[in-house]
Amino acid sequence: MPSSAPPPAQATDVPTRDARSATGPRGRAVPSAPQTRSARAARPLDVRSAGVDGLRAVAAGAVITCHLRPDLLPGGSVGVDVFFAISGFVITTLLVTEFERTGRIRLRRFYTRRFLRLMPALMLLCGLVALLALATPLRAFEGQWMAALLAATYVANIVRAGQPGPYDNTMGSLPHTWSLAVEEQFYLAWPIALRALLGRLRSRTVLAVVGAACLVPTVVRLVIWDDDAAHRIYNGFDTRADQLLVGCLLALVLWHLRDDDAALARIRTWAGRLAWVAAVAIGLVAWRLRITGWVDGWTPAWYTFGFLAVAVLTATVLAVLVLDRRHPLSRLLALPPLAWVGQRLSYGLYLWHYPILAYVGTLHLVPQVEVMLVVGGAFAMAGLSYLLVERPLLRRKQRYASA
C-alpha cells in the first residue's frame, strides 16, 4: 500500500534563478549557480502540508477498514491508489527542488534517503514474521519465512501478478506488501528518468513527455485485459505506474508554473471548485465498489480506466491541499489528529495491521473484539516502530541530507 507512504520531507526554498533560463544547444538546460532574484524571492515548492498528512491517514484508514470489515467499506483498497499519487507528487517535488537548487539530482543521496526511511521498518516486520514462522507453532505464520523474504526484497507484487486464479498462500500474512514493491520499483526507475529528462529537455517538453507516459499504462491494461489478467493488472508495476506518474505530473506542473501567479491562481480556483467532487467520488468508490472482487460491468472499467481516473481525482485534491490551505477540505484534512497520524504512523499502520489481522483471525473472536485487537495492536506496533526505528533513522537521514 501503500505506501509505504513516508511522511513528506521538509521542502526547501527553490533557488532564485530558473534553470530553464540558461540553455545550451538544442535547448538543453545548463545548470547554474543559485543567484538572488532582485524582484522577489522564488516560491518554494512546499509539500509540508498538514492536509497531505491528513490525506495519508484517511487513505491508510480506508485500507485497514477494508481488510477488517469489507462489508462496511468494500472499496477501501482505493486508499492504495491515493497513496501512489501522493508518493509520486512528494518524491517529484523533492527531486525538482534539488535539481533547481543544485543543477543536478544526486541518485546516491536519493536512494540512501529512501533506504533510511522505508527499509528499516519493513525489515523489522519481515524479521519478526520470519522468526515467528521458524521458532513458534503459531498457525498464522506457519511457513511464512518465504513470504518475509519476498516482502523484504520487494518482489511481492511480481509473485501475486503471476497468479491467474485465486491468490494462494505464498505471501501469507504479508500480501499487502505488494504495494510497497510497486513503489520501490518506481523509486528505482523514476529519479534516473527524471534526471535524464530535466538535463536534456525544456520543462514544457518534460511535461509533455510525462503526460504521455501517464497514458501508457492505461493502453497496456486495455490490451491485456481479460478476466484472468486481473491479478497481473492489479499488481504489475507497469500497469499501476500511471497513478504514481499523475502525482509526478502535478508536481512538475506546479514547478513549471511556480513563478506564474496568474496560472497558479487559475489552478487553485478550479481545483477548489472540483475538490469536493473529487473527494466525494473517491469516497463513493471506497463505500460502494468492491475493487478486488467481480462487480458486473464495473470491474472491466475499473481495471482499465479506473486506476487513472482515481489518480486524477487524487491529484485534484492534492492541488487544493498544497495551493489553498484555507479551503474547507484543506482545513478538514489538516486537523491535528489526522495530520499527526498521517505524518508519523501511516506507514507503520499499513505495515503492521495485516500480520496482526492474520494472527487475530486464528483466535475465532467476535468481530468487535477482533477489530479492537487489530486496530489497537497496529497502533501500538506502529508507535513502537516510529519511536525506536523510524525516528532515529529519520534524524540520520536529515543529517545525511545536510551533509
Automatic annotation (TrEMBL):
List membrane-spanning regions. 78-97, 118-138, 205-225, 241-258, 270-289, 301-323, 344-365, 371-389
Record keyword Hydrolase present? no
- Where does the record place the Acyltransferase domain? 50-389
Gene Ontology MF, one: acyltransferase activity, transferring groups other than amino-acyl groups
Key words, A-Z:
Membrane, Transmembrane, Transmembrane helix
UniProt-listed Pfam families? Acyl_transf_3 (PF01757)
Its GO biological process annotations read:
lipopolysaccharide biosynthetic process
Residue ranges for the region (Disordered) are 1-43
Q: Name one GO cellular component term.
A: membrane
Q: What name appears for this protein in its UniProt entry?
A: Peptidoglycan/LPS O-acetylase OafA/YrhL
Recorded source organism is Actinopolymorpha rutila
